Amino acid sequence: MTENVLGVAAPRRPRRAVLSLGSNLGERLDQLQAAVDALADAPGVRVVAVSPVYETEPVGGPGQPEYLNAVVVVETTLPPRLLLEHGQAIEEALRRVRTDLVTYEDETSDDPELTLPHPRAHERAFVLAPWYDVDPAAVLPGHGPVARLLDAVRGQGVRRTDLQLRMPE
142: left (phi > 0), else alpha (psi -120 to 50), else beta? Predict the structure, then answer.
């Protein structure tokens, strides 16, 4: 590791990370695309895969619109905490997109501010289904192959759509 200008340890080589995106307000697809583009614009982040878009029933109370969800795989030289902070800044800027850091290579962390892998990723079809689409051999650290985890949660009301997000240029 080397220290960056913020004095935070940064990896010497790019690391692969998986982020989950979701939006249920306004122009949902446009919001997701804006999040993908913002991730790609971050220094030290390169988007390597964008999943198909899924529609998901809301988990909250009645009357909420359905979510659009996708997964983005990036290679980054940002340390996990800075990548998470960038995702949170995207959420704040867009006000209608949720971004979660699902994995950062095979790192694990029990830090309450950054738990890795995401503590509920293994039970969320809206994360597992799009992740499987972009990486069928993926493994969720501590839980096993995404394909096996997805089989256990298939009945959660997640449907693949014909909608597509563009890879950033």
Answer: left
Query: How far is Cα 23 from Cα 20, in angstroms, rounded to an integer?
Result: 11
Q: How confident is the model at residue 63 (pLDDT cuts 50, 70, 90)?
A: confident
CB 107 within 8 A of CB 80: yes
* CA–CA dist 40, 48 (Å, integer): 9
Per-residue model confidence as pLDDT tens digits over 87-121: 999 999 998 788 999 999 999 999 888 999 999 99
Predicted TM-score of the model (pTM): 0.90
DSSP structural state of residue 75: E
CA 72 to each of CA 116, 165, 167: distance values in angstroms, whole numbers, following the listed order: 16, 10, 10
Q: How many alpha carbons fall within 13 Å on the CB side of residue 168?
A: 18
Phi first, then psi: give them for residue 107, nearest 5 degrees: -70, 145
| DSSP category for residue 155 | T
